[in-house]
Amino acid sequence: MTSTGAGPVRLCRLKRRSEFLEVARGRKVVTPAFVLQAQRRTGPDAQPTIGVGFTATRRLGKAVVRNRAKRRLRELARRILPEFGEAGTNYVLIAREAVTTWPWRQMEADLVSALDRLHRRLPRSPAASRHGS
Questions:
Q1: What confidence tens digit (pLDDT) does each residue in 4-31 have?
Q2: Alpha-carbon distance 67 to 90, whole Å?
Q3: Does residue 55 contact residue 28 with C-beta atoms inside 8 Å?
């Protein structure tokens, strides 16, 4: 299930708090290592890119632990989202306690599965439904 027929889609980082809050209003899937939130972008300025943001709260641990968790999530997103994510969608990965110890292959499988579940539940964008996607 690739995002477009032309190959992988470019990832753009979400940086503003308002972007994270917008995604939080969308759908979510919980796994042992992370929570994946997704929200399709709407409006005329919706770009054919994948937006991605990362969060690790203080409850997870000190800065060293939080930074390691976010590094793992960034690499996971870099490898999986261009192929399995959908263009025009923003994703937020929220680290959970198991993210630093969870096996890498299992995290990859969890993200692919979570993306599949989210895409089935997200409302289709009008442009995608017109093009038969």
A1: 455 668 899 999 999 999 999 999 999 9
A2: 22
A3: no
Residues 55 and 94: beta-carbon distance below 8 Å: yes
* pTM reported for the whole predicted model: 0.83
Give the contacts of 107 (CB within 8 A, at least 6 positions apart). 33, 34, 72, 76, 99
Sort strands 89-95 and 50-55 into parallel, antiparallel or unpaired.
parallel
- Closest by CA to 131, choosing from 45, 22, 48, is 48
52: its two tokens: 């991605």
Determine contact, residues 82/51, Cβ cutoff 8 Å: no
Question: Tell me: domain 11-121, CATH 3.60.15.10, correct?
Answer: no
Question: What tokens were used for 64?
Answer: 């060293």
